[in-house]
Amino acid sequence: MQYAISYRRLSDKDQSNSLDTQQREIQSYCQRNDLILKHTFTDNGTSAFTFDRPEWIKLEKYLKDNKEVSFLVIYHIDRFSRATLLDALLKLREIEERLKVKVLSVTDSIKQDSNELSTQLNRIMQLMFSNNEYNRIKQRVTDGIYQSLSNGRYCTKAPIGYLNAKLSKDEIRTNKNAPLIIIDKTKAPLIKEVFSLYNSGVNIQDIKKLLPKLNLKGNSAIQRILSNHLYAGIIKVPAYKNNPAFEVDGIHKPIITKLEYYQAYNKINQKKASIQPTDEVWLRGILHCTCGRKLTAGNSKGKLGKMYWYYKCNTHKEVNLPATKLHKEFLQILDALSFDENEMKSIESILEQKIKEHQSNRGGNIMQLNLEKQKIEQKIKNVNEKFLLTEGIDKSVFESTITELKLQQSQIDVSLIKAKTDTDTLVVLMKNLLPKLNKISSVFYEFPLHRKQQLIKSLLPSPIWYNNIYATPKVNKLFEHKALILNEKRLLKIEQPPFDFDGFPLSTPIGSITQLELLEDLYMAFSA
Fold this sequence. Notes:
Layout: E1 2-10, H1 19-32, E2 35-44, H2 54-65, E3 69-74, H3 77-80, H4 85-98, E4 102-105, H5 117-150, E5 162-164, H6 169-174, E6 181-183, H7 188-199, H8 204-210, H9 221-226, E7 234-237, E8 246-249, H10 258-268, E9 287-288, E10 296-301, E11 307-312, E12 320-322, H11 323-337, H12 341-389, H13 395-419, H14 423-433, H15 440-446, H16 449-459, E13 464-466, E14 470-472, H17 483-488, E15 492-494, H18 514-526
Parallel strand pairs: 1-2, 1-3, 3-4, 9-13, 14-15
Antiparallel strand pairs: 5-6, 7-8, 10-11, 11-12, 13-14
Helix pairs in contact: 7-10, 10-13, 12-13, 12-14, 14-18, 16-18
């Protein structure tokens, strides 16, 4: 009697020839040839393109430790290897010549001579066919993934915030458009909060601390989330064969809007490092020097050992503004912006009229916005075609242009949503918002840092600077009637800045229902 071991393998991509079938044929072969099968090694769901497989590694060690074994029996040569011809032949030679173990498939004669030319040629043909079959399987899988992505189906491991859908083959066959990732109701709100915090000015390190439930590891985890287009429902299809890369809308449900994604994308890709605020200096990153540079901040110890914060300009070293003074004056601005009872009644009357106008003009506004959207979409198409057909266009310039156009497209989409908002929703927003405008500084004081900054940007949407008095080009449209009072009290000047502020985002939304859009924006800013 002679001793043998066997090897079975099943790939996750090729489910033909089950493990039970292989085992049954191997055992039958050993019985017919009077071989005692001492052990069976099984790799389940493992590719044969390399020999770095868990059970195969154990198999080689077993052969080295058990010299009495003379045969390695496999179902077919493709269970042994689908690697390149050279790699497979070298591994065969290593087992048969160095370990003195004959490799046999269940169709081979036990007496076959591995050194005979006919045997070698037969093995070469089988291994070549096996490798070719592997490449064909790989090609089919790659083609399938490309087709799925092109159809908006994300088909690999779900990122945090999503779960891989557990669909049966029947479900996939009957519903070919079924998404393969679904919303994780526990984590998705946290992902949305990541984008909200980042777009409102919170730095990445603080976001990680504010959202411990995400259980993120690594310093770049938040940045990977902010860079992931899947959250906005975008599928990026890579270049494949002769087809260029392109984007499609995914069939999965987005967690955030495209506007939120592109706003974060633009911030991440800005070359200048952002100036981050802290609770002690919440105007840092918002307040400007008269030269146009954003003020940073520092602190120093006073006579009694207390730390005093101040704002400073890295260009003009003489600028040294005490934070306590500036904060007190800013809170006075918020008090001056607050509405009394009569003003709230007046504003409510104006907004009610605007809501009625919105209802009657909604059709025309939607039509205008759709026309603007078509123009942007045509521009995106033209830029894509120009990049594909014209050599020498810098890729970074192309990506920057496309991103800017898509940001505009997202802004129009948001305006369309607002234009379609029903009047009842707008009335509810107004009723909930107006009481909070009675004492803005109190609401502001209770907010955490990132909400403070979001509210400041909503009330004073243009750059703010300080030169013995706060100044800005404009205030939120709902507070324009307060401008004269603010100036008389020497709290805030409405004037053009002494520096060029091209590139600063203005708050005027796209479309003609500006005041109602500002009503929604303000409501979000005041809602903790």
